[in-house]
Sequence to fold (375 residues):
Amino acid sequence: MALKKNQEFFKDKKAHSYIKHILFKETLNTSIGIANNMGWINSFIYMDLFAGEGLYDDKKEGSPLIALDLLKKHIDSKSNNFKTISLIAIEKDTNSSEKLFELLKGKVNDYRIKILKGDKNWENYFDDLKKHLSSNEGGFIFADPYALELDLLKLSDLIIKGTKFKDVMFLINRLSMKRIFGSKGKNASEIKKYGIDPELIKSQEDLSEEIKKQIRSKFEFKDFAIGLAIPIEKKKKLSSIDYFYLVLTTNSVGVADSFLNSYQNIVEVKQQSKGLFTGYELKNSIQKILECQNKFNFYNLVNSLYNDFLSWKDATKIPGYKVPTTGNIVENINNLLKEGKLDLLCDDKYKTGKGHLSKSIKSKAKMKNIYLKLK
Fold:
């Protein structure tokens, strides 16, 4: 990417960047906490593959500094079980990389957090990153490219092994894709980075569904691949067009639920109307899934609803829209129970005093012991 564009990226932090960083911060914080509570995970690594220079012109922090603050806060909580914590920040612009490294060194102070940097494309450090991933039990990888610089196939190769307990978040720039995939035969090398056959390209198609398909297939070793649309800011207003998707791949229900809950909180602020039938769309989705089988496992239902790409436009424009968080899913299951449309088949320990499904169930093992059946 040209240096000029890189510098423009770090102007004042816009509203869409706030939204992105809220989702990033809450999800990373949950990822750190869950890894810490798993006892046998003794080390945690955070990798930022497009780290930037750390600060926007208005002095608001970028992702690597946000991550460092969370890691320091975790150590201060006195519940830290990690023996080693590392942060790797890669920024290919040398000046920006140096600025960031100085900021990180200044902020780490006496905390036992190892800081490493790279000033080339992250692909140049591929083998080293692999080794770091292998030597750390827990971790989080963040890739927020400036335009269409993310090699999806290479990222998948990086994390396909040894990353069961490492969560990955990356930004997909649909607007750039729409431009770059606009004409058949052009930009074939960029198209191939996403695993797409250039022959599929037709004039003016942005291949959104094909991109989603490739993400799901390339990260099939993760239980969840969730895409949340992030709006862009035009003339100080948020556009409802789904140009950007922030994607999370994880094996943790808790991390996935944190991601979706953060989105629900943001959406509620922007929703035009709560609607008379809150959760109507989600309730319909649940019924449609349950209609496919006589008896459906609760975990499989959550998995089906999580593994989707959610539209900002739908979330903010459809009256009463509900993001499929575990809490919202359970609420709508209980509504179906109250209406007499559903049977809940599980041990009483998973039920409330009224015989409804408890909202506190977050582990995969417990979810797999619960079955739902439409009457």
